[in-house]
Amino acid sequence: MCRLDHLRLAIPAGAEDACRAFRAGILKFDEIEKPEMLKPRGGAWFRAGTVELHLGVESDFRPATKAHPAFRVSTLDDLAAALAHGGHAVRWDDAIDGRRRFFTDDPVGNRLEFMDAAT
């Protein structure tokens, strides 16, 4: 049996507050405490459902503009509206028949996909 435990995305040093506002504020992810030994490295950890999302500081940061995590959400239209209201572009994509989804970028340029849980 295999189950996804966590995803890790890179962020630049000093971007934690903007990433917290985006993930905890707009996306409504729960921030979880990092282990004490890892706190000096910076970054932040979040949980969405059963999956953790770890943001790690990289000194030579480059945003992931093609590779991306995808999240199934039950309120896709509400999330799209909240992102747009928060100033984040929502790019709807109909390339896969029968699957409602869109892409957006986090505050540091990492690509994220959100799909309707019903499709």
Would you mind describing this structure in some detail?
This protein is an alpha/beta fold and 119 residues long. The chain has one domain: 2,3-Dihydroxybiphenyl 1,2-Dioxygenase, domain 1, CATH 3.10.180. The chain is 18% helix and 33% strand. The chain is built from 2 helices and 8 strands. β3 and β4 (51-57) form a beta hairpin.
| Beta content | 25-35%
Q: Report the principal-axis shape.
A: globular
Pattern of helices and strands: EHEEEEHEEE
Return Rg in Å: 14 Å
Describe the sheet with the most strands: 4 strands, mixed
Instruction: State the CATH superfamily name.
Output: 2,3-Dihydroxybiphenyl 1,2-Dioxygenase, domain 1
Helix content: 10-25%
Oligomer: single chain
Helix/strand class: alpha/beta
Could you please say which CATH topology applies here? 2,3-Dihydroxybiphenyl 1,2-Dioxygenase, domain 1
**Count of the domains:** 1
Tell me the distance between the termini.
24 Å
- Can you tell me the residue ranges where pLDDT is under 50 for at least 5 consecutive residues? none
Strand ordering within the main sheet: 1-4-3-2
The name of the CATH architecture is Roll
How many beta-strand segments?
A: 8
CATH class label = Alpha Beta
What count of helical segments does DSSP give? Answer: 2
SSE arrangement:
Layout: E1 6-11, H1 16-26, E2 30-32, E3 44-48, E4 51-57, E5 70-73, H2 76-85, E6 91-93, E7 101-105, E8 111-116
Parallel strand pairs: 1-4, 5-8
Antiparallel strand pairs: 2-3, 3-4, 6-7, 7-8
